């Protein structure tokens, strides 16, 4: 029987779990447990929680269906999942546009202090978020994909390249262009700059 | 190239809360169904139980049992490895809490602190200051208290023109237009300061209307709709977070406080935007009496602003100020 040493396998890498899931489909649930929250937050940041509620799960359904196509020699499971998520987002550009419009209108998260200074700081953050949302809405889709996989997904150049199936040099140039455009959009009063 | 800080700031600005437990569970259920279909070789939802006589022992059954053991062990290990990432304020972001039974469970929402929720509500109300505020009030057993009110802007600055429309239980439409004099004082209720403005009144029962310039206006709104009054309101009570719930299809956080003579006040805020959704006063005017405010913040679109302007139906007679 192939499953001979579960105790050694259960703490294995994502790639090992995925490989085992080819024979033991139930194991794929472990990847869901490990990565669903991060994938959800990446998608919710782009398309809003309402759409992400459904689409984040769809990412794992798609990944499960495509598990035989994953090649560990090319990259890791995590960026592979982000790539699938990004492809799904591409089918929901209108939701993404609505998300940025909503961010421009509302955008105050929980604060831990209740004083005027804290409120003012959060309002400043809200203004920055509004500028960010507008700038993101104006970016070309492919540049935005690279930027947000890097910023929100926290993927490396190589991981983004694997996720999007593009060369690393392309990732670098797109990211550089996106960042320059965002910086220009904020102007000299760029609230991002510390 | 732009500053190295930009990506971090973008991450902060776009940060959203993790998935709710029910979202995690729903996704897990969909995946389980798909996996089950894969394990049996049939699409999920189309499987039929095999007849006992047709079941044949085979490697797939043995493998399923073995896989279950692996899943159990893996889940327990994942629980041990679950960590909170520092830059997310302690939210669990890698892995989920798991049950000893081996099935991955759901990451619970972060613990809610009343002070944090209150601060978030205040900040959101302030930030939504340019929105149209819509409040529907419902009294029980006194339905005469039922009103609808539109207010714009919801949190005006001093000197800013304010428009307000109220429709009473008997259909009376009252439009007030005035300039905010001191921040938030215009919402101070019947005992509040006198505000001078214009009042248009339409009485559909008598088919009359009137307009009065320079009249006294005392708009009364629930505390939850004013940043300053909300601050006072919250500060004057000891609030507790009752928990999370759902209201009008939106995730909500429910706050509560108790007062004398059985008075109980409840406040629901949107868990995502932190804007107030409902304020409920129980036993406010004797046992069993309730006063409920359903609150919406609407974008100041032309369509929503048009709701602030009542139309005088043809044939109505203008009369001296009512």
Q: What is this entry, summarized?
A:
Chain A is mostly helical. Chain A has ten helices and no strands.
Description:
The complex is a heterodimer of chains A (194) and B (322). Chain A has 194 residues and is mostly helical. Chain A has one domain. Helix content of chain A is 71%, strand content 0%. The radius of gyration of chain A is 19 Å and the shape is globular. Chain B folds into 2 domains: 93 residues, no CATH class; 200 residues, outer membrane lipoprotein receptor (LolB), chain A, CATH 2.50.20. Chain B contains 6 helices and 14 strands. In chain B, strand 7 and strand 8 form a beta hairpin. The chains are: A mainly alpha (194), B alpha+beta (322). At the A-B interface, helix 1, helix 3, helix 4, helix 7 and helix 8 of A face helix 1, helix 2, helix 3, strand 2 and helix 4 of B.
């Amino acid at each position: 029987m192939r499953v001979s040493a579960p105790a050694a396998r259960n703490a294995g890498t994502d790639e090992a779990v995925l490989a085992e899931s080819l024979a033991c489909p139930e194991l794929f649930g472990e990847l869901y447990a490990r990565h669903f929250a991060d994938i959800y937050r990446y998608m919710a940041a782009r398309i809003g929680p309402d759409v992400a509620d459904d689409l984040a799960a769809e990412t794992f359904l798609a990944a499960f269906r495509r598990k035989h196509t994953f090649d560990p020699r090319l990259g890791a499971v995590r960026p592979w999942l982000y790539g699938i998520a990004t492809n799904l987002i591409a089918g929901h550009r209108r939701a993404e546009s609505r998300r940025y419009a909503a961010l421009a209108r509302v955008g105050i998260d929980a604060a831990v202090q209740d004083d005027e200074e804290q409120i003012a700081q959060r309002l400043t953050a809200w203004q920055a978020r509004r500028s960010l949302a507008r700038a993101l809405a104006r970016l070309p889709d492919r540049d935005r994909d690279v930027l947000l996989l890097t910023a929100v997904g926290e993927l490396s150049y190589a991981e983004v390249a694997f996720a999007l199936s593009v060369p690393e040099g392309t990732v670098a140039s797109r990211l550089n262009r996106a960042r320059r455009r965002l910086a220009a959009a904020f102007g000299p009063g760029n609230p991002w700059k510390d | 190239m732009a500053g190295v800080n930009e990506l971090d700031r973008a991450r902060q600005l776009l940060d959203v809360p993790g998935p709710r437990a029910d979202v995690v569970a729903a996704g897990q259920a969909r995946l389980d169904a798909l996996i089950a279909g894969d394990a049996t070789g049939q699409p999920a939802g189309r499987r039929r139980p095999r007849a006992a006589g047709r079941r044949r022992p085979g490697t797939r059954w043995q493998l399923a049992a073995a896989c279950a053991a692996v899943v159990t062990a893996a889940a327990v290990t994942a629980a041990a490895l679950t960590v909170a990432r520092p830059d997310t304020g302690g939210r669990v972001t890698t892995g989920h809490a798991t049950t000893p039974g081996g099935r991955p469970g759901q990451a619970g929402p972060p613990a809610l602190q009343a002070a944090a929720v209150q601060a978030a509500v205040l900040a959101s109300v302030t930030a939504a200051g340019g929105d149209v505020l819509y409040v529907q009030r419902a009294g029980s057993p006194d339905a005469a208290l039922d009103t609808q009110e539109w207010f714009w802007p919801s949190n005006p600055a001093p000197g800013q023109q304010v428009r307000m429309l109220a429709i009473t239980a008997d259909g009376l439409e009252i439009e007030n237009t005035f300039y905010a004099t001191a921040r938030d004082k215009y919402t101070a209720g019947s005992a509040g300061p006198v505000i001078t403005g214009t009042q248009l009144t339409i009485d559909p029962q008598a088919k009359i209307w009137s307009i009065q310039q320079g009249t006294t206006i005392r708009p009364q709104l629930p505390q939850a709709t004013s940043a300053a009054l909300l601050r006072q309101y919250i500060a004057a009570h000891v609030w507790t977070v009752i928990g999370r719930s759902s209201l009008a299809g939106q995730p909500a956080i429910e706050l509560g406080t108790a007062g004398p003579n059985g008075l109980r006040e409840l406040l629901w805020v949107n868990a995502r935007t932190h804007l107030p959704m409902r304020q409920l006063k129980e036993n406010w005017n004797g046992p069993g009496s309730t006063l409920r405010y359903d609150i919406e913040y609407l974008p100041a679109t032309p369509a929503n602003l048009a709701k602030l302007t009542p139309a005088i139906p043809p044939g109505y007679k203008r009369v001296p100020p009512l």
